[in-house]
Amino acid sequence: MKRIPMMLQLAVILFCVMAVPAIILTLFSGTQILRYSEKAIAESSLAGLDANRRLNENALNNLAQDTVRLTASRVFDRIRPFENYRELQEDYNHVSQALTVLRELVNLNNRVNGVYSSFFYLSGADYVISTDKGITTTDRYEPIGWMEKVLEGRRGISGVWVPRRLSSGETVISYVLPLNRLSTTTRGTIVVNLRESQIGEYLRSAEPADHGYLLMQADGLIISHNDKAVLFTDGTKQPNMQEILESQAREGYSFHELHGERLLYTWSRSDLFGWWNVNVYSMDALMAKTNKLQHNIVWLTAAVIFAGSVLTVFLATWLSKPLRRLVRTVRSSGSRGVADKNELTFLDAVFKRMQEEEEQLYKLLQEREQDVRSLAVHRLLRGEEVQPATELFPEPYSLVGVLSIDRYRSYADMTNPETRSYHRYLIVTHGETLFPPGVVARCVYQGEGCFAVVINFGQEEVDRDYEGIKSALEALSQYAGDLLGHTVTVGVSSRTEKNAGLQDRAAEAMEVIKQRMVDGGGGISFWSEEEERGKPYLYPVDSERRILNFLQAGNLERLLEELTVIRVEIQSAPSISYDNIMFIYHQLVGVTIKELRENQMNPTRIFAGRGNIYSAIASIDTLDELDHYMREFYRDILQYLARRPESEPGHGERILRYLDAHYCEEIVFEDMAKEIGISYSYMRKIVFEMTGTSLIDYMNLRRIEKAKGLLLESGMTVKQIAAEVGYVNIQSFNRFFRKYEGMPPSSYKASKLRSSG
């Protein structure tokens, strides 16, 4: 064969190439006919349904396990002492603890696709912490009374899956999990809302003849369907569903006629949840494809054989000319150890050599794909021990640089996730190539617009006063700024001689980044030990008092001048910390809101469009931006005060006078609100802002105070006193008395008599 003319070989090869497809197509035809037979289609569809069911179960299990792990982290213990929303908002540290819980809930949402929202409710509290509305009172959030009912039939310590429709119209499958009494003393419930549409994504079949899918509970309630109009209806009313439920088979398939169309029903029941998964296919469409495929194969086979016979000679002649030219060109560069052989043999030898080189390159690519250096760097920055650390960073010294995108929220709003991911890839890969020889750099993305660069170097770079490192960081900053269209701030830590110290160095770099609050963004700063760490916090008490006075007087111009005084004082203070600046402005916001509440004004109405003010302040990068935000903050207040009706403050006094006069009677609060001339919900807010308690609690507290006097000063029985103060039965009286006094009425009377005797 090595000396047979190439043209003859090509003719034989081409003929075989044409014949082989004809044989393959023939075999393919028989295989496809068998595959699309009714039994084969049904079994294949059932297998696909079973796989989709397992995928759905795995996704739900992963979400449940992540939720259980979160309850075991004891993060909710941070807010256990704060059952009152007002108490939580009074102190920045309290809010910070709640925000930590909120961040954990956001992280929980991001672990599984399709999570709509999640929230945590502390038992007995009047607020919830949610990912969709933040930290808010229960009366401003979705109703949560349904949780107690769904948890009644719960077994063990696992959570409960509940299908429901939110007030926003979103249909979700909620996972409700009370905190485990074995792992924490905190009492509360986590609720994670998974979109019903995400369940549909798992259940939807990829078959072209797919008619639809159906997910039912054991009692037949539809919790997921391609037709959203039938959600939460009785699934047994759907065609042929009753027969499937009565079959008692865990999985199977059946054929039915519906409106002249032959349909395939496949079903599989979940052992874990007891749910029925059903898919419906059109058999007519599937079999039509089989028939069409048979005819196409016959014609295609005939065409291939005919074309092969005609083209074999033509192609053999036509292709031989460029092949000969190729062989002559290759031979002109050297024989590569092949002589006295025809062109095809020569090319075969050349291609084998190329194949060997390709295999070597493929091995190098495999080694590259198996590289785990990014994971190792992340672990080192978290303070964990990493086995190949000395291989990653062989030099004796290391420092950590953090590159942070200025105004990251603005950047994130202007770019989509794909673009941000691509930018991160370019910065990480490009950042490692900018450093000079002898300096090893490993760049990783830390999240929230921050990149960490671990820089490893020797004594030579130290002697050069970090000249190469500084130049590389300047180039990286310039590159990132041009790429992102945003300035970036670079913070560099002190030097360490141990890889175990990288976690502390990363913390130093982040502290340097925070200094852009005073210095502004876009620069490169190095860590330096502060000389006056014991210096007390700066706080402009006199400015605070003057701001409140100007606010009461409605003098915006003088108030803004006082804000300028505060900013100048901060800028002139030596080595003022980021935390000190945050403390100053958080305190200003806190005392201002307190002043508004004391003057019977509702801050929620004033700042309805601003969201969480404390979170907004914490997300600001520079002092100029923070000063601008505070100016707008006070402008909003004064604009509200200018247009506020004069009669509004009188509502609170009228409400309390009415309650003080009628608390022993049966009060219908809706009628009471109409009589005063306001809505019931607004009346509740006014009472809470003035007294710190709800309408019910205020009325019951007045009743119990009256009852305490009657217990000690009158000879009435407990039953008579209960009726006197407005309770229809003694059980309610005893329950509320114990709630507010910590003991039943009889014990209270006895203790008071003993103490007076």
Question: Would you summarize the structure shown here?
Answer:
The chain has 757 residues and is α+β, with helices and mostly antiparallel strands. The chain is built from 30 helices and 16 strands.
Please characterize this protein's 3D structure.
- Its main location: membrane.
- Keywords: Cell membrane, DNA-binding, Membrane, Transcription, Transcription regulation, Transmembrane, Transmembrane helix.
- Residues 653-751 form the HTH araC/xylS-type domain.
- It is found in: Cell membrane.
- This is Helix-turn-helix domain-containing protein.
- This protein is of the alpha+beta class.
- Helix content is 56%, strand content 14%.
- The protein contains 30 helices and 16 strands.
- The strands form three sheets. A six-stranded antiparallel sheet has the order 3-2-1-6-5-4. The chain has a five-stranded antiparallel sheet with strand order 8-7-11-10-9. It has a five-stranded mixed sheet with strand order 13-14-12-15-16, with helices on both faces.
- Strand 2 and strand 3 (134-137) form a beta hairpin.
- Helix 18 runs antiparallel to helix 19 (556-572) and helix 24 packs across helix 26 (680-691).
- The model has no long low-confidence stretch (mean pLDDT 80).
Which structural category fits the helices and strands? alpha+beta
Which blocks of ≥5 consecutive residues have pLDDT under 50? none
CA radius of gyration is 37 Å
Bulk shape: flat
Number of strands: 16
Helix content: 55-70%
How is the biggest beta sheet arranged? 6 strands, antiparallel
Comma- or semicolon-separated keywords:
757 residues, alpha+beta, six-stranded antiparallel beta sheet, five-stranded antiparallel beta sheet, 30 helices, 16 strands, 14% strand, flat, transcription regulation, transmembrane helix, transcription
